[in-house]
Fold:
Amino acid sequence: MLKPAPSPADDHAAPTAAPVGVAIVGLGYWGPNLLRVLADNPDVEVRWICDLDHDRLTKYRRRYPAARVTTQVERVLADPRIEAVIIATPVHTHYELAARALEAGKHVFVEKPLAPSSELADDLAGLARERHRILMCGHTFVYSPPVRAVKRMLEAGTLGDIYFISSSRVNLGLHQRDVSVIWDLGPHDFSILLYWLSEIPTTVRAIGRDSIVKGIADVAFVSLSFASGIVANVELSWLAPSKLRRTVLVGSERMVVYDDGASEPVRLFDSGVVYRDPETFGEYHLSYRSGDILSPKIESDEPLGLELADFVGAIRTEQEMGFHTALARSVVRIVEAADRSVREGGREVSLDHGDIGSQLADYREFALA
Amino acid sequence: MLKPAPSPADDHAAPTAAPVGVAIVGLGYWGPNLLRVLADNPDVEVRWICDLDHDRLTKYRRRYPAARVTTQVERVLADPRIEAVIIATPVHTHYELAARALEAGKHVFVEKPLAPSSELADDLAGLARERHRILMCGHTFVYSPPVRAVKRMLEAGTLGDIYFISSSRVNLGLHQRDVSVIWDLGPHDFSILLYWLSEIPTTVRAIGRDSIVKGIADVAFVSLSFASGIVANVELSWLAPSKLRRTVLVGSERMVVYDDGASEPVRLFDSGVVYRDPETFGEYHLSYRSGDILSPKIESDEPLGLELADFVGAIRTEQEMGFHTALARSVVRIVEAADRSVREGGREVSLDHGDIGSQLADYREFALA
Amino acid sequence: MLKPAPSPADDHAAPTAAPVGVAIVGLGYWGPNLLRVLADNPDVEVRWICDLDHDRLTKYRRRYPAARVTTQVERVLADPRIEAVIIATPVHTHYELAARALEAGKHVFVEKPLAPSSELADDLAGLARERHRILMCGHTFVYSPPVRAVKRMLEAGTLGDIYFISSSRVNLGLHQRDVSVIWDLGPHDFSILLYWLSEIPTTVRAIGRDSIVKGIADVAFVSLSFASGIVANVELSWLAPSKLRRTVLVGSERMVVYDDGASEPVRLFDSGVVYRDPETFGEYHLSYRSGDILSPKIESDEPLGLELADFVGAIRTEQEMGFHTALARSVVRIVEAADRSVREGGREVSLDHGDIGSQLADYREFALA
Amino acid sequence: MLKPAPSPADDHAAPTAAPVGVAIVGLGYWGPNLLRVLADNPDVEVRWICDLDHDRLTKYRRRYPAARVTTQVERVLADPRIEAVIIATPVHTHYELAARALEAGKHVFVEKPLAPSSELADDLAGLARERHRILMCGHTFVYSPPVRAVKRMLEAGTLGDIYFISSSRVNLGLHQRDVSVIWDLGPHDFSILLYWLSEIPTTVRAIGRDSIVKGIADVAFVSLSFASGIVANVELSWLAPSKLRRTVLVGSERMVVYDDGASEPVRLFDSGVVYRDPETFGEYHLSYRSGDILSPKIESDEPLGLELADFVGAIRTEQEMGFHTALARSVVRIVEAADRSVREGGREVSLDHGDIGSQLADYREFALA
Structure:
């Protein structure tokens, strides 16, 4: 990670010895996981728990009696001992809550996706840059040990040139009125692809269907084309017989299967194509050699713990998290484009990433340490 | 199956008591399987084995000494005791061989795909109709017991309305200079979909990549849209870490997974969406109930045996095989459209099926007996 | 569950409205899970956390600030607001701690196995009876939804008569100097078998090996014979390439596979033997019909939560937990016998269960509500 | 393989250029596979097909018109151009048929098990030795590529010292009046174990049950103890929800899972035990490190083809097949002992192998070329 020039004086910065004062806003589906991990981190002091629902506040106050609870985010933002705000609310509230927190001088960690549009995501990034605050988005898979193991293989050239990637993320989950499956599940795959490839797709095409709720796609097949020639196909669905989170990378030297739910989450296939001389004119044969398969040992650290430790560490050491902000902005762009393509019957949508592409490439070595 | 008016006098028709005289042309990859099954069928007499390769002829003469061998297809076609010709040669030779056999008054069974273009496929169908000969294409999966089990579920309404279908057929196989993976593997999925749905897609989109041999796509993601609203996505690839032939059908009542290589090839999921009242304004939740899963018993008959028995039976009883001809023509149209879409960067290609659609629908009840 | 005559006056009994005051003793491997579940139960007030290790106490005080911590079990037992003590210490300390707690008038929940010998287990049971206290042992699998689903099938006659049971419980876990794999993993299988069959084996045979630590078997194959003719074979091992917890029950009507780690933990096989007439003298054929397979929906409740809720509920409603005490005593007998058989080279060991057998049978209907 | 001194003059020995004249006796369950493989072997001429059933003879004459058919084994044995007889009849006929063939000067390949008792097996071996004929038993798994891959690992020390072996071979198959599941399925596992370990067990214990047919065990759990300390447990059953052929070898360095029906039949687990210092007196911890897993590429040659080619090659080159005869005799001893143990309620049965043990050890290097 790049360490920029020392940041300007910051009244809110805690001395490194004391725990970082943190507030969590939103205790719905994912917030309790964030809260649990924060509470276990000795470098963190959870000072506020904020949610609109009184029953939830009662429940979590019982479990974390050291924190104060409130339904008023203003009280949280007004507390000078709060250095960072963790936002785990519905997507349509991300922008307003994050912007207010940044304006109040807080570092912000917001659940994925960063914002409900690329314009708003860019706005937040600009605001964070102006205020010298960290803006990080919860693309937790980037901290997942199997995802990192694949990243190391890619950087080491183990797979050779990547030809294509095929991914399925299908699930039975909650369904919200204002969010398609692309907004819900797409950020997982798109963040993983951006992290692995350090490259942004140039065009996106998607077809899907709003099987259950009119206007909300609950299944989508998203195709991404990259300037390097790589093709990626991502199946996203809330309607599936069983949960599946499986990505196949096919390279010129080897193939990898990353299966997030499997006991062997990464499997490396030492098989490739072997050219064979044509036997007769008009025929041309290739034979494929099927070779060894390796399931490397993968650490079992919890990705969310690693991610929040990185966020807290960056606050303490005054590091920028430029890769993360660029990644989060790119993800919103891809989601937005895929969602538009589905609504327009599969039309090709080009992506303009402006300055983000070079930022992603700058951080190519991220997380290989 | 429809039984048409009695066919006109036919000099070549054998009395039902005697076995049907058959020739096989092409002993490459798939031909030997056809030969084995024909040799075991007591209603068939394999009289000729024809291939351009002398070593192959020597090998199969040893195994089937009762048949004559030749490199000259003319000798086969000139034999009046040959009623049917089985063609298992490379795709680019299908049209010429099938046309010559039909013109010689033979019934024809040709390996899939029927012809290398829809025009030639239509020509063959016209020729067969004129000559009152059966023209059948080896879409063997239509005879596969698991595929038929799913067909019965569809006809019985077990799945409710179909929302979408997601299929993967990935494999490590032979690679030929003049045929993309869409021509090679696509006919399997497309024939199954046509058989299940009795409906032809209206548009096709596909993206892919020619990773190994320039100009020959070895991976493709094909999207089919149907007038009924069904969306199907088919992944086809010669480059995969392991063989997979898996199709998921998601319906309003139940879901089915058909996995051709699995010990339980059909699994029926009694899970669906349950609506739940929104808890608060702005939120809208669906909960998904995960229910029982059933793996019905599937017969273990060999599809190829069933298919060739059907072909021979149709010859003996002078039945038309109109469904099969319509299916084979439709498959060629879809393959052709998908191949064009890949070459044109994923452009949408509309399908004009002319009279085929109604023919497919007429045979909706096929194979449910 | 049987509700006995009202228990005698009990100074320590809390009014049903107030939470039950509980202490937990032992925060090693399993204790933290008990603590988490107790802390989430609104009918429980965790008043004391007791462990010999100061670091652990510090860690859990941070997480559960409402509880007091101590290294002195005397302080716990002297607190009149403690109604129940939860013991999760090493096996060799179970007897002394449980006995002292019962003598102090507390209800006791002790991790499995109940005691390091059947004599001491019987002693504890006697002490609990005398003092009118509940003595429950943490055979958590008896509360596991898949185990209960199989129990319901057995009681409903779905499987017919049980012919045999084959179980594997292999694992990579901690290894202690004074406990063989039979003492460590055996209680899981033995408690499940006792619960399912409501019958105690008459003889036990086991062979094993002390591969790593001299004198401590780390693998054992235990065979149990029941008076009803049922045979059960249980493989227990700390040395296995991957975790497996799989039990197969073969009955005259159907078979069941219970796989604790699988996404479909219970699978019911509608396959059985079909008699076929002998074709010729001297030959006798049976054909086996392979039929449908059903994976019933299984609830996802946490067994530990159900178990502790049952314990607390029994305290509040002054119920006896006779089945649990009988089960726990039986388990210790089987473990003891299997351990002796391994040490004596596989010798058959007979089991004398005294009054326990009839107690188990009395509670046959347990947990079917 | 050892090549002995040149064998004495042999009137029946064919010149190496001509194919070996072979007869097959018994076309029931397994015979047709032998026949198919023999017919495809260019070094073999199948001259006779012999079975008591006329319909079978008719069927196979059609498929293999070059061979003569008969119900009279005398005609086969009287044919001087027959060098070898392949016997695939029911077990109780093995001895008489093999003895007559050896006495007629033929080499003999007999399906497993070699004979219905160890006395008769020894008799056959003696007869073969006297007559300088090859006597080989169809323990085909010894030629299976995955079994050989494990053998190479064992010889290379990849696994370290073997601690124990756990095997399951469960199946839904035919059931005969006079043969228990131990006689039917046991030879597979026992031959594999003998081949791998080059060591004969000293004691056998087995429990089982005759669930369906009185007196015929259809399930058995067989425990084998070896002088080297290795313990093996083999589960054999005709009554199982699904076919399973899985063997786990646990060694001091690595573990292997051999799963005959899996797409990855051999998986090598780089995981072992790591000693950790005791934290406190009275406690002793080991931690287990879970490491990489490797699925080596396994050749896909058909074991039966390799086996019969070896048999035919030995005839042509006048080699002894001493390892095979010793293996087959050992297998019968183990089966006999396990069957007796089941009938005697699990009693330990000692094995006396006489001269066989040293013969097995002599051929330790067998099949590693």
Notes: DSSP finds ten helices and 17 strands in chain D. The radius of gyration of chain D is 22 Å. Chain D touches chain C through 56 residues (CB under 8 Å). Residues 1-15, 275-285 of chain D have pLDDT under 50 and may be disordered.
